[in-house]
Design goal:
mainly alpha, 19 helices
Length: 509
């Protein structure tokens, strides 16, 4: 099967998963927000916000293991794949213990020094944090199995597991609505059980399906290669940890200056951004193994071409949904939520803008990771990642409004971080600035600008309502499709679309 067909098939599985999980997740958030109330929902987002924070940690560790798995699968070396799996299994078990102890110690200082929580809810918040530690440890231990699925591009089973996880979360939300016990405590405890179930399901499948999933630590242990993997994973973890600290730290800083109500607004913004990011994340997940395998095969030109095309498409997939959402945020939130937390509308818009700016270069960073020499790159990115929280804290001390948090975030993570991605890809992987500008930045900038102009023209002319929402969505969609197809589509992209069309016709027959 060609690379294009593999990517199309796997992206299709991930979008099918997304279609199910997005609806479930949005409805779950509505249930939980109304069941817990604004204050408890805000408490969960600041205390349990480390769950979102650990998404960075989880992705980074899975990405490190997947890089080695995909690299050596490209070389066709099954013995090395077994070695990688066993080393990865031991490393992540140790990391799980370390992270658990670290979170336990951090919790002591958070509750004593940083968090602003009503006195009567402190016990419940501590229970949630304890459940989070358990959840985190099992999430970390699932990384080697997730990396195996991704390196084999088995997005069908990965999607099935994702649907199971979403259904479990919905079940938890429904139970929380009707329970007579403390709803925040019940929610925290039940959410901690889900990663245990997911790990069990993935472990059973991978050991039955894949030859390299053989636990024989003594036989496959390689101290030299363990040092190489540990070094790579360590630097990858450094970059993820700096992102993680800032992501979670923003919630703590916001809580310290403005209280839990603004954490609720931030939670809504994170939820919406996370759901819309699924559209581009699905494609990136399908493409990541291809980039690493291409480097493993010694085909750097294919690696760079794949990263540029996926960079363009990941941005456009997010922009297709995010731009009309930004224009109609207030109306959508009123339809979706019964009670809109203060500042939620502006936070959602700024969070989506941040995500869009980051997507401009995110897939370029995958080329740096694929080639393996990430030490200097990771140190630079870590500094860029950690600076926003320091600057935001200083600005809040001088009386800056809450939205300054997002402006600082966009500048450092989106603009400076994006330039670092391009600079290091050029230095280490021979990416040309002109290739990035003409294949990615120029087309997406023109398409986005015209979508914004067309959408806001309707927004200004009509009063708020369903009709305006539909017209904004229709006009931005038509603008997107016409400008992309007639001015910026490449012959390779036309061939990919033709393959998708043929597969749909064949499926119908």
């Amino acid at each position: 099967m060609s690379i294009a067909n593999r990517v199309i098939k796997n992206t299709g599985f991930l979008y099918a998963k997304m279609g199910i999980t997005m609806f479930i997740s949005l409805y779950t958030t509505r249930l939980i927000l109304n069941a817990l109330g604004v204050t408890d929902f805000g408490i969960f987002n600041v205390v349990g916000g480390a769950i979102a924070m650990l998404g960075f940690l989880h992705a980074a560790m899975a990405g490190a293991t997947q890089r080695f798995m995909s690299f050596y699968e490209g070389k066709g070396d099954i013995n090395m794949q077994k070695r990688i799996f066993n080393i990865s299994f031991v490393l992540h078990f140790c990391i799980a213990l370390f992270v658990g102890i670290l979170l336990l110690c951090a919790g002591y200082f958070f509750f004593r020094e940083f968090l602003t929580i009503p006195e009567e809810r402190i016990y419940a918040a501590k229970v949630v944090f304890g459940c989070l530690i358990i959840s985190t440890m099992f999430t970390v231990m699932s990384v080697p199995y997730e990396a195996i699925l991704n390196s084999h591009e088995n997005m069908l089973y990965y999607s099935i597991v994702g649907v199971i996880e979403s259904v479990l979360k919905l079940t938890v939300a429904i139970y929380v609505v009707y329970t007579e016990a403390d709803k925040l405590i019940v929610y925290g405890v039940l959410m901690a059980i889900i990663p245990i179930i997911i790990l069990t399901v993935m472990r059973i499948y991978c050991h039955k399906k894949y030859e390299e999933c053989t636990i024989s630590i003594k036989r496959y242990w390689d101290y030299v290669f363990m040092k190489e993997m540990t070094s790579f994973a360590g630097f990858n973890l450094l970059g993820a940890s700096s992102s993680m600290i800032t992501q979670y730290g923003f919630g703590v800083v916001l809580n310290s200056f403005f209280g839990p109500v603004l954490n609720a607004a931030q939670g809504v913004a994170n939820q919406i951004s996370g759901q819309l990011m699924v559209f581009s994340n699905n494609m990136m997940k399908a493409v990541n193994p291809v980039i690493s395998k291409s480097e493993g095969e010694g085909n750097r030109a294919l690696m760079l071409d794949t990263s540029l095309i996926s960079c363009k498409f990941s941005y456009l997939l997010l922009a297709f949904f995010a731009i009309p959402f930004i224009i109609e945020t207030e109306f959508i939130l009123k339809v979706w939520l019964k009670n809109i937390p203060e500042w939620a509308v502006l936070f959602v818009r700024l969070q989506l803008l941040k995500s869009l700016v980051e997507q401009l270069t995110f897939m370029i960073s995958r080329t740096v990771v694929a080639q393996g020499n990430i030490k200097t790159y990771t140190i630079v990115k870590s500094i860029i990642n950690i600076l926003p929280i320091i600057i935001t804290y200083i600005l809040f001390n001088y009386g800056s409004p809450p939205y300054v948090l997002y402006i600082v975030w966009i500048f450092f993570w989106g603009i400076l971080g994006g330039y670092a991605n391009i600079f290091f890809s050029r230095k280490l992987c021979d990416l040309k600035y002109s290739s990035y500008f003409f294949k990615v930045f120029w087309p997406v900038s023109v398409i986005s600008l015209l979508m914004i102009v067309s959408g806001f023209s309707i927004n200004i002319l009509l009063d708020r309502g369903v009709l305006r929402l539909l017209l904004v969505g229709l006009l931005t969609t038509v603008t997107f499709l016409l400008v992309y197809y007639f001015f910026f589509i490449t012959q390779m992209e036309k061939n990919m679309l033709r393959n998708v069309k043929n597969k749909i016709i064949k499926f119908k027959k």
